[in-house]
Amino acid sequence: MNLILLGAPGAGKGTQAEAISAKLGIPQISTGNMLREAVKNGTELGLRAKAAMDSGDLVSDEIVIGILKDRIAEPDAANGFILDGFPRTVAQAEALDSMGVRIDTVLEVYVPDERICARMSGRRVCEGCGASYHIEYKPTTEPGICDKCGCKTVQRADDSPETVLSRLEVYKEKTAPLKDYYAQTGKLVTVTGQEEVADTTKLVFEALGIAD
Ligand code: AP5
Fold first, then answer.
1. How much of the chain exceeds pLDDT 70, in percent?
2. Residue 118, pLDDT above cutoff 90
3. How far is the CA of 120 from the centre of ligand 1 (A)?
4. Whose C-alpha in 3, 135, 141, 171 is 20 to 30 A from the C-alpha of 87?
5. In the annotation, is 156 catalytic?
6. Which residue in 156, 179, 187, 202 is the catalytic one?
């Protein structure tokens, strides 16, 4: 199954992608995580991406399409993948089409803006492996320590209230038009994000036809 997860920043794409990945045994491919890794490692790509990410803007189509193309060519993606955060512009969607990539479902996770801001302020991510938590809705077992690798969890640099507002604006202007793009293909399915992660996952699995 080749899936695209669409939704505003903080809507829960990464959280649901992780659950789908565990259920179907296909990789979660997050362009945001790949870019953050590049920034952390100080690679040339990371240096080129950093300014846009820090201000809440999108990284250039050229950079992101390049890393996505390389990633989906890796062997673990041969039997399916979940695109988390890509495409983000109509140009990126068109690039995916021109690569000949077949998409089965585009799943939009919808959450109203006011809920988004609360979620972002409580999000913590692991410095080591990038795993994502929420101090209230998805806490680590030991406060401040990642359950998966034991490294410290921190607040993401682009989760400050001002940057979140600018990311929401960018989403509305540049990414929301993708809903029409995929609605025309008949592949768009929308799920409303619930207060509890598990309740959203249940709706997501039902929408994808993979519930037990
Ligand atoms: P990226 O990392 O993709 O960020 P994003 O789309 O803004 O999405 P987030 O990771 O912030 O949120 P999410 O929807 O995954 O929510 P999460 O599951 O974490 O991109 C970062 C930056 O990289 C961009 O700004 C851009 O600069 C660049 N970039 C990336 N891809 C790009 C592209 N294709 N083109 C150009 N630039 C690109 O959930 C949020 C919080 O809420 C968590 O704490 C979680 O635990 C909690 N939560 C989740 N679900 C629930 C629930 N149901 N109830 C309560 N809490 C919940």
1. 100
2. no
3. 9
4. 135
5. yes
6. 156
Chain position carrying tokens 């490692």: 41
Indicate if ligand 1 lies below 6 Å from the C-beta of 200: yes
**pTM given for the model:** 0.94
What is the chain's alpha carbon radius of gyration, rounded to the nearest angstrom?
A: 16
Closest CA relative to residue 7, chosen from 203, 186, 172: 172
8 CA from centroid of ligand 1 (Å)? 7
Chain segment 176-206, per-residue pLDDT in tens = 999 999 999 999 999 999 999 999 999 999 9
Residue from 71, 119, 124, 167 carrying the catalytic annotation: 167
Q: What is the C-alpha separation between 29 and 24, in angstroms, rounded?
A: 14
- pLDDT tens profile 58-72: 999 999 999 999 999
Catalytic residue chosen out of the listed positions 71, 119, 123, 138: 123
Strand blocks (E) in 10-122: 28-30, 81-84, 105-110
**20 CA distance to ligand 1 middle (Å):** 16
Which ligand 1 atom is the nearest neighbour of the CA of 133? 46
DSSP bridge partners of 172: none
> What's the CA gap between 122 and 2, in Å, rounded?
30
Ligand 1 midpoint to CA 56 (Å): 12
